[in-house]
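Service request form, structural biology core

Requester: graduate student, group of Dr. S.
Request type: structure prediction, single chain
Budget code: on file
Notes: please return the result as structure tokens.

Sequence provided:
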Amino acid sequence: MLDVMGTQASSAAHGTGAVPWPAEADAALTGPPPIGGESDILALVQCAQNGDTDAFGKIYDHFFAQVYRYSAFRLPPEVAEDTVADIFVKAWEKLYQYKAHRNVPFAAWLFRIARHTVIDVYRTQRGFEEVPESLEDPDIFNRAETAVERKDLLRMVRKAVSLLPRRYREVLLLVYVGNLSHGEAARVLHLTEGAVRILKLRALRKLEASLPSECRELL
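Core staff response, request fulfilled:
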């Protein structure tokens, strides 16, 4: 639904934008067969907790694209790549702390690490904008007839997103950029699933209201 965020980050991830797409990402998207579901993920987690690095490699392949998109939307590309590496290193180091019996989806546990890591990077490196302008997606903004108009559209959308309350922005990023379910996003933010749905709805309404009419069709 929120194409201007999800597709923008996706195109950056696939190399159509200015954000470089590391070779590992191709493997994450086109290499090994996808993991079937949460039960398969938990089986891999259990193996990884017992020291199986190949199992953790499969976890990395499965979640890399989601984590990279989430980080790349918040950070400049040269910072995002290092941040993603740090996120997975922290996940490996803290993997023993993950307890499946607590009914927290592994994706939610991983994105808690991602969220806090991105926040820490952003706080320590305030010399950049949170949503870099270089993430322009020509597929989304090709409705404008000129490059100047495309830049204007992008600038308005970026400004509107950056002015959202923090909780609204976080919900949109987790759901539309991180591609988490409402339940997984709820676990990341320590909220109920119903609260996440309400926040998302309010965030979309606020974002739409803050955009000029020519941009609203992008939502």
